[in-house]
Design a protein that fits this description.
CATH topology: Amino acid/polyamine transporter I
Distance between the termini: 70 Å
Number of domains: 1
Helix content: over 70%
Low-confidence stretches: 1-10, 226-232
Strand content: under 5%
Mean pLDDT: 86
Largest sheet: none
CATH architecture: Up-down Bundle
Number of strands: 0
Structural class: mainly alpha
């Protein structure tokens, strides 16, 4: 009787121990670029675009699960699999576009951290960008010295902080339930809302999150599985895949809830307010409407978002280089090098919000290069064996990939045509 009771508990404990990678990857869904888009959507259109975030989150669950499954079953990341299959010229070209995407990601995160420090302490943007970079170095040092589990713990803690920071305002000014329900009905209101919806939905799945999640899932496996041909571990792999599904759903439901909270907070408190098309303006409006405490909590959430996102982005860039070029640069060295372009752009005096918009446009170019190979590879019988995508999953995956790619093309067209 004792054994019968203990075994399920042991099973649950092992399941819990496998959770974590998706919470790190989910940081990409609550980065400063998302903050700007969500606040703008709520301020301009109220609850109209809630459905966009719900749809985006559903798509993200599938995409991130496929990325994690690839890492679990093959013991390799998406960049590693592509690096093994592509000829050298193609590998180099693919790496160039992936690095451009990683640089755009880093730019957005550093800017977000710099804006948060300016809002909290009046720190000049350039100095704030440097401080953000230094703190991200310390976070990455945890991964280098204490291992991935400790790194996951730090990033997950930051995720908790930004969740509190971005959601705190709802306790002071609850949203309108009827408005939220109405916002679940898919509809738009003119060309500008189309552009904003395309930006929110098309840029939800970040390329670096797809690349990184497969590596995080690979490295989070039990030591007996990591780095080998895990297809032979017939009993362990299904258990890890089951844990991966739970991990992805929990993490992205949390990230999606934070995004929706930001939109409805803006919808309830910022409609028609002038100057809310920038993060600084939205923060000032939130603080003026809900009080300085909520304003401070929001800025703290933005800071946690920037710090966590830039650390995760640097980690993703290192995995991309290692997988495609078979060159592993020390993570801290890479962090220093990739920080320089972001600081240089901050020094030009260009509007930080405009730089955030440009970074999101650049990220749009990288979506097809990550999505299409992922969907093709996770259906490959030779690569994933019995764990390859079922027909229904594959149809859904191609549909999601098609929608995301089409929306990013629409976003690019509308951006340049405006």
């Amino acid at each position: 009787m004792t054994r019968t009771v203990a075994e399920p508990r042991m099973g649950r404990a092992r399941l819990i121990a496998l959770l974590g990678p998706a919470f790190v990857a989910s940081i990409a869904y609550v980065d400063p670029g998302n903050v700007a888009a969500n606040l703008t959507a709520g301020a301009r259109y109220g609850y109209l675009l809630v459905w966009v975030l719900v749809a985006a989150n559903a798509m993200a669950v599938l995409v991130q699960y496929l990325s994690a499954k690839l890492g679990v079953v093959t013991g390799r990341s998406l960049p590693e699999v592509l690096g093994d299959r592509l000829p050298r010229p193609a590998r180099l070209a693919y790496w160039v576009q992936a690095e451009i995407v990683a640089a755009a990601t880093d730019l957005a995160e550093v800017i977000g951290g710099a804006i948060a420090l300016y809002l909290l302490f009046g720190v000049p943007l350039v100095l704030g960008g440097i401080i953000t970079g230094v703190v991200s170095l310390l976070v990455l040092a945890v991964q280098q010295t204490r291992g991935q589990r400790a790194f996951e713990g730090v990033v997950t803690t930051m995720l908790a902080v930004l969740t509190v920071g971005f959601c705190a305002g709802l306790f002071f000014s609850p949203p309108d339930p009827a408005g939220m329900l109405a916002g679940l009905v898919p509809r738009l209101a003119g060309a500008d809302s189309v552009l904003l919806a395309a930006s929110m939905l098309g840029a939800t799945v970040m390329p670096h999150a797809i690349y990184l999640h497969s590596a995080l899932a690979r490295d989070h496996l039990h030591p007996a599985l990591a780095g080998g041909d895990v297809r032979t571990a017939t009993t362990a792999v299904p258990r890890v895949i089951r844990a991966t599904r739970i991990d992805v759903v929990l993490a992205l439901v949390l990230a999606g809830s934070v995004n929706i909270a930001m939109l409805v907070l803006a919808a309830a408190n910022l409609p028609g307010r002038a100057g809310t098309d920038t993060i600084e303006g939205a923060h000032a409006a939130i603080a003026g409407t809900l009080g300085p405490v909520v304003g401070v909590l929001f800025a703290v959430g933005l800071l946690a978002s920037g710090l966590a996102s830039t650390s995760v982005g640097a980690y993703a860039g290192a995995e991309i280089m290692a997988g495609l070029l078979h060159i592993r640069v020390p993570l801290l060295t890479r962090r220093l090098v990739t920080l320089l372009p972001a600081i240089a752009l901050l020094m030009t005096g260009i509007s930080p919000t405009w730089l955030l918009v440009v970074s999101q446009v650049v990220l749009s170019f990288g979506i097809p290069f990550a999505m299409i190979p992922l969907v093709r590879l996770t259906r490959d019988r030779e690569l994933l064996g019995e764990h390859r995508n079922a027909v229904t999953t594959q149809v859904l995956a191609w549909t999601v990939a098609g929608v995301i790619v089409a929306l990013n093309v629409t976003l690019l067209y509308l951006t340049f045509a405006a």
